Structure formats: C-alpha cells, structure tokens
Amino acid sequence: MHSTVGFAVTHMVINTVHGKFNEFSGVLTLENGVLTQATGTIQAKSVDTGVERRDNDLKSSNFFDASKFPTIAFQSKRAETQGDRTVLVGDFTIHGVTKEISLPVTVKGPIKDPWGNQRIGLQAHTKLNRKDYGLKYNQALETGGLVVGDEVDLEINAEAVKAK
C-alpha cells in the first residue's frame, strides 16, 4: 500500500516520461537490522504511464512483450555495505534476459507501527540500459536523436512488515 516501483526514460530527447508498475511483491531478509537478501517480482502487464495507448505499446512485443515474459525479477546474491547504504548485488531478469546488477539500497527503521508490527522502509535507485535486456525498439528522429532513450532510471520505495 505504501510502496512504488517506478521508472523514467527520455522521450524524443526533450522530455522524460515517468511510469510505474502496479503489481509487484518482494521479500527482504535482515540480520541484526542489516539488509542481507532481497527478492522481488514485478508483473510486466501492470505497467502504468497514465496513457493507455503508450501502456499497451509497452506491454507489446515492441518492449516488455508481457504475454511472453510476464515477470520482471530481482534475486540478490550478496549484500555489500557502503557507508549508510547496502548494495545488493544480484540477478535482474527482464524480457527473458538475466544480468547481474548492483542495487544501492537505503534502509530506514525498523519501527513499531501503530498496529504492533515491526516495519522498515527501503529506498533503491539504479540506472539500466534497456538494450542490455533485448528492449531494442526505437525510431530515429529527423534531428538525429531517438524516440526512446536507452538509459532507464529505476526507483523503488517500499515499506515492509516483518512476517509473524
């Protein structure tokens, strides 16, 4: 309820388009308050940029091909501490292609919420090249740029509640 998985990509060289995924889940493991593992799964069909026509294009074989590749996934392999951040190193899979990425994460908490649960906040941000994952559709502009930028900013803001 208080979590988002969002992205941003350059459009026609002059603008940045933001979007999010509405269906996702994840599991975090903390040891002595330190994040040690994480997994996450996103339903590609849940992409939402606020424009139905664009969302349908993103779900199509031009981009995510959500009917063939329904999930986007992350599975950490190890955690490294860098200052007040943890960097999760793991496998990121999109469009059937898996690559190792480093995902810098800031963990806030834990706190006890008003319902007696132990809760943490997590913020993560990284950049990906969509072409590394086979998302190659593009179109050249008359001015020499491309319709869709290659670099995608990925941002995760999440709250997690300790399992009982």
Could you characterize the architecture of this molecule?
The protein has a single domain (4-161), classed as Lipocalin. The mean pLDDT is 88. Helices cover 5% and strands 60% of the residues. It has a 10-stranded antiparallel beta sheet with strand order 3-4-6-7-8-9-10-1-2-5, covered by helices on one side. It has one helix at residues 52-59; strands spanning 4-11, 15-21, 24-31, 34-43, 47-48, 71-82, 85-94, 97-112, 118-129, 148-161. The chain has 1 helix and 10 strands; from the N terminus they run E-E-E-E-E-H-E-E-E-E-E. It has 164 residues and is mainly beta. The protein is globular.
List strands and helices in order, with pairings.
Layout: E1 4-11, E2 15-21, E3 24-31, E4 34-43, E5 47-48, H1 52-59, E6 71-82, E7 85-94, E8 97-112, E9 118-129, E10 148-161
N to C succession of SSEs: EEEEEHEEEEE
* CATH 4th-level superfamily: Lipid/polyisoprenoid-binding, YceI-like
Our estimate of the beta-strand percent is over 45%
> Structural class of the helices, strands and pairings?
mainly beta
Average pLDDT works out at 88
| CATH topology type | Lipocalin
Distance between the termini: 18 Å
Examine the secondary-structure arrangement and name the CATH architecture. Answer: Beta Barrel
Q: Considering DSSP H and I runs of 4 or more, what fraction of the residues is helical?
A: under 10%
Number of strands: 10
| CATH class designation | Mainly Beta
**Rg over CA atoms:** 17 Å
> What is the overall shape?
globular
What's the domain count? 1
| Largest β-sheet summary | 10 strands, antiparallel
Flag low-confidence runs: none
Total DSSP helices: 1
Strand order of the largest sheet: 3-4-6-7-8-9-10-1-2-5
